[in-house]
Specification:
Blueprint: H1 2-31, E1 43-50, E2 61-64, E3 67-77, E4 84-91, E5 102-107, E6 114-119, E7 132-133, E8 135-137, H2 142-151
Parallel strand pairs: 1-7, 2-6, 5-8
Antiparallel strand pairs: 1-4, 2-3, 3-4, 5-6
Protein name: Outer membrane lipid asymmetry maintenance protein MlaD
Pfam families: MlaD (PF02470)
InterPro entries: ABC_MlaD, Mce/MlaD, MlaD_Phospholipid_Transporter
């Protein structure tokens, strides 16, 4: 009786393992958008300099208007100017990107992944392979921005003089305890 259940059990375990391996393959394909590191055919390289990369990583998307047109292939540091040099691998079918295009490091959502967003200009000449994008905007550091807001008094201008229109303002130079009703 146990010999009849043995082959069925082995078949079920084997089918489960094949299903698990197939699901891991699907997960790997989904997380890399179908592009593994060795698939680079049909791309050309552009570069851009940034003062702050934020959380940008290699293999991050390069987008125009929300459409992915390439990937970040390499990130280096210029030893002379101490700028970050980002190399972009752009698909060859997008070879008419105007020469006055600007690049910015953006974030998808509040805590999403960082990517390079390109904003095409109106120049009739196109960027050639190997050229550098001249106009760039660094990543915005949200923690630093929130810190500046919190310690600057809630966004109010720190250098502004206090208003004397408030009759209950005790910081006013001509306010006295008698004005507040503390003393008779």
């Amino acid at each position: 009786m146990t010999s009849a259940r043995g082959p069925r059990l082995e078949f079920a375990v084997g089918a489960f393992l094949l299903l698990a391996l197939a699901s891991l393959l699907v997960l790997a394909m989904a997380s890399t958008n179908g592009q593994f590191g060795f698939v680079r055919g049909g791309t050309y390289e552009l570069s851009a300099r940034f003062s702050n990369l934020g959380q940008l990583r290699p293999n991050a998307p390069v987008k125009i208007g929300g459409v992915t047109i390439g990937r970040v292939s390499k990130i280096d540091l210029d030893p002379v100017r101490f700028d970050s040099i980002v190399t972009l691998a752009v698909q060859e079918r997008f070879n008419e990107i105007p020469a006055d295009t600007s690049a910015a490091i953006l974030t998808g959502g509040l805590l999403g992944e960082s990517y390079v967003g390109l904003s095409p200009g109106g120049d009739l000449e196109a960027l050639q392979p190997g050229e550098e994008i001249a106009f760039t905007s660094p990543a915005v550091d949200l923690i630093q921005m929130v810190g500046k807001y919190m310690f600057s008094g809630g966004g109010a201008d720190a250098g502004a003089a206090p208003s004397t229109d408030d009759p209950y303002d005790t910081a006013s130079p001509d306010a006295s305890p008698r004005d507040e009703g503390v003393l008779p």
